[in-house]
C-alpha cells in the first residue's frame, strides 16, 4: 500500500492515512499496520517512542481516513504529544451523519468511558449517574456544512481526544455517522456505495518542534466524495 506524505521534515511526518488500515497493532495481528509500513521506509522510527505505536502522535480508527502525525524522534514526539494533551492542537473532521441535524452549530459536552457491556465500545455518562465516577470529560464542536436528503455533512472539531469520541458523541445526539456499524442504530439508512464509516480527518493546526505553526488540509478521498456526489444527484 502506497502512503501519501502531506509534509515531511527532520522531525515530523504528516501522512494522509487511507481507510482500512490500523495505525498500529495492539495484538498479534498478521496484517501490516500503518506504522509497520512506515518503518520499512523509515527504519529509525523503531528508536522513537515505545512499541507498538513508536512515533505515532495521535491515533485514527481503522476505517477513518485523513491527517495523521508521526514524530521521527523522541524530542519531537514529546513536544507534539504535549500539545494534544494541553488541547493546543486544532483538529477538524468531515462526517456524514444520519438525518437532518437541527442546529447549524453546537457543542456536545459529556463524560465518556468504556461500556461495561462491550469493552470495545465507548458510551456517554452524565455527571453523578451510577458508573460515571472516573469517566473523562469529552467536548465536541460541530457545524453543518450541507443538508442532503436523509443525511447531513458536518465539520466536527473535537476539543478533547477520547477514544471514539466523535462517533460516540454523534450517536448520542441521535445522528450517528453513516456506515458506522459499532455506533449506528439498527436498520439505519446507509448510502449503498459506502463501504465504511464516513469520517475523515481533514485539518490539523499545530506548532512544530521548530516552533513554526503549521496547518495541514486534505480533501475527501474518492470513495467519500463519490457518496456526496451521488446524494446530491438524488437531491436534484
Written description of the protein model:
By secondary structure, the protein is α+β, with helices and mostly antiparallel strands. It has 2 domains: 1-86, Pseudouridine synthase, CATH 3.30.2350; 92-204 and 220-236, Pseudouridine synthase (2-Layer Sandwich). It has 4 helices and 10 strands, in the order E-E-H-E-H-E-E-E-E-E-H-E-E-H. The chain has helices spanning 34-41, 74-85, 165-172, 222-235; strands spanning 4-8, 12-17, 65-71, 90-98, 105-114, 122-125, 136-148, 151-158, 199-207, 213-217. Strands 1, 2, 3, 4, 5, 6, 7, 8, 9 and 10 form a 10-stranded mixed beta sheet that branches. Strand 1 (4-8) and strand 2 form a beta hairpin. It starts with a strand and ends with a helix. The model has no long low-confidence stretch (mean pLDDT 93).
CATH architecture title of the largest domain: 2-Layer Sandwich
Spans of 5+ residues with little confidence (pLDDT < 50)?
Answer: none
SSE pattern: EEHEHEEEEEHEEH
Overall, the morphology is globular
Mean pLDDT: 93
CATH-defined topology of the largest domain? Pseudouridine synthase
Structure summary, number of beta strands? 10
Radius of gyration over alpha carbons? 18 Å
- Structural class call reads alpha+beta
CA distance, first residue to last residue = 37 Å
**Count of helix runs:** 4
**CATH homologous superfamily (4th level) name of the largest domain:** Pseudouridine synthase
| The CATH C-level class name of the largest domain | Alpha Beta
What level of helicity do the residues show?
10-25%
Major sheet, described briefly? Answer: 10 strands, mixed
Amino acid at each position: 500500500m502506497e502512503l501519501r506524505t502531506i509534509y515531511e521534515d527532520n522531525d515530523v511526518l504528516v501522512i494522509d492515512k487511507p481507510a482500512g488500515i490500523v495505525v498500529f497493532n495492539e495484538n498479534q495481528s498478521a496484517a501490516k499496520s500503518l506504522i509497520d509500513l512506515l518503518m520499512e521506509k523509515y527504519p529509525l522510527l523503531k528508536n522513537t517512542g515505545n512499541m507498538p505505536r513508536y512515533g505515532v502522535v495521535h491515533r485514527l480508527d481503522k476505517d477513518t481516513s485523513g491527517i495523521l502525525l508521526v514524530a521521527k524522534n523522541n524530542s519531537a514526539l514529546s513536544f507534539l504529544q504535549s500539545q494534544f494533551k494541553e488541547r493546543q492542537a486544532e483538529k477538524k473532521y468531515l462526517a456524514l451523519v444520519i438525518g437532518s441535524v437541527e442546529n447549524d452549530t453546537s457543542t456536545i459536552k459529556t463524560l465518556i468511558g468504556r461500556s461495561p457491556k462491550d469493552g470495545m465500545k465507548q458510551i456517554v455518562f452524565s455527571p453523578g449517574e451510577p458508573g460515571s465516577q472516573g469517566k473523562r470529560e469529552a467536548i465536541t464542536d460541530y457545524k453543518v456544512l450541507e443538508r442532503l436528503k436523509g443525511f447531513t455533512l458536518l465539520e466536527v472539531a473535537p476539543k478533547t481526544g477520547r477514544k471514539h469520541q466523535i462517533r460516540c458523541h454523534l450517536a448520542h445526539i441521535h445522528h450517528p455517522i453513516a456506515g458506522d456499524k459499532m455506533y449506528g442504530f439498527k436498520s439505519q439508512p446507509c448510502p449503498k456505495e459506502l463501504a465504511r464509516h464516513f469520517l475523515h480527518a481533514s485539518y490539523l493546526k499545530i506548532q512544530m518542534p521548530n516552533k513554526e505553526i503549521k496547518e495541514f488540509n486534505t480533501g475527501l478521498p474518492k470513495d467519500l466524495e463519490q457518496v456526496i456526489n451521488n446524494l446530491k444527484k438524488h437531491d436534484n
